[in-house]
Amino acid sequence: MTPFESNFFKYFVLKFNFFGLKKLIATSYACSSAASTELPLFDCKSAGEKTTKVPYKIEISEVVKNPEAGFDITAVTDLLCNKKNVLSRLKGNGDFRSPECIELLKESDVVITNPPFSLFREYVAKLDEYKKKFLIVGNKNAITYKEIFKLIKENKMWVGNTPMGTDMLFDVPEHFAKTLVSTKQEGSGYKIVNGIVKGRAQAIWFTNLDLQKRHEKFTLYKKYSAKEFPKYDNYDAIEVSKVVEIPMDYDGIMGVPISFLDKYNPEQFEIVGSADDKDFYPIIFGKYEGRIMLKGREPFKRIFIRKTKSVPLGG
Fold first, then answer.
1. 209-261: per-residue pLDDT in tens?
2. What integer is the mean pLDDT of 34-40?
3. Does residue 192 fall inside a structural domain?
4. Does residue 206 lie within any of the structural domains?
5. Which domain holds residue 77?
6. Range 191-197 contact pairs with CB under 8 angstroms and sequence separation of 24 or more
7. Of 51, 72, 95, which marks where a domain is finished?
8. In the chain, how many domains are there?
9. The whole model's pTM is what?
10. Is 205 part of a structural domain of the chain?
């Protein structure tokens, strides 16, 4: 993807001076077909629908004149006329695990990107290894990945400011919009907003940047009753099917939906474990083979929590 195609790059160029940035670094794994005609510097040669992979990096150290909202190749050219800004080929393939990309990672203070979902575990592991601040997009279900959940449990990573129930919509090319409409169901694969087809992703923001909502106390109103909150068949915890109904007067372990992380305040609650982490509950055994069961059925993904010791009953 070229600079003028990346909305991350566009946004931070436009906000470069507003945020007081020292440097903005962007890399690519391969250039797009658009780059083959508009960025001949990289000699991207098209062969049918295939494009030669030519990874690059662009380093912006000064933005004298903010590009216009259109942000086309002219805006990129204007940026590169400034000798303080550099556009160059990468020596390797642009993989985030490559030595030169690791060196760029070391140089950075904050990483903001949309990493490949298939490599999400490995990507986050690199960020954690180098102790980087980050704001990244990931599949909503990544919460339950063992490696990711461990970081959430240890308060090294959490859900971003946008609520998990809010759709993450994306602009898509016209040809792809037609494909979505013909092959996907509206509401799940795409949505139409003001007559425009938007791609819909089962995705959320993940970050380790502090957020105000992580310090907001979640108000509890419901009182515990054994009838409304039954215990699991094979684990000493109660089932709370709706986050808003977490009982105010129960101090034991509770199983809650993963959407709880929208309300998670580590000063109010402690995350004990996850129903998807088979190392979490070795006491669960027998015919269920490590699965949480409720009245003979396995509930959808659950996180186990309890109030912190500093929070009194009813708090």
1. 999 999 999 999 999 999 999 999 888 899 999 999 999 999 999 999 999 99
2. 42
3. no
4. no
5. 1-95
6. 191/167, 193/169, 196/171, 197/172
7. 95
8. 2
9. 0.83
10. no
Tokens coding 117: 């979902």
HSE-up of 181 (CA within 13 Å, CB side)?
12
C-alpha 139, offset from chain centre: 6
Which residue bears the tokens 């979640």? Answer: 218
Q: What is the DSSP string of the chain?
A: --GGG-HHHHHHHHTHHHHT-S-EEEE-SS--HHHHHH-GGG---EETTEE----EEEEE---SSPPPTT--HHHHHHHHTSTT-EEEE-SS---TTSHHHHHHHHH-SEEEE---GGGHHHHHHHHHHTT-EEEEEEEGGGGGSHHHHHHHHTTS-EE-SS-TTS-EEEE--HHHHHHHHHHS-BTTTEEEETTEEEEEESEEEEE-S--GGGGSPPP--PPP-TTTSPBPSSSS-EE-SSGGG--TT--S-EEEEGGGGGT--TTTEEEEEETT-TTT-TT--GGGTT---BTTB--SSEEEEEE-TTSPTT-
Weakest mean pLDDT among 15-24, 166-175, 199-208: 166-175
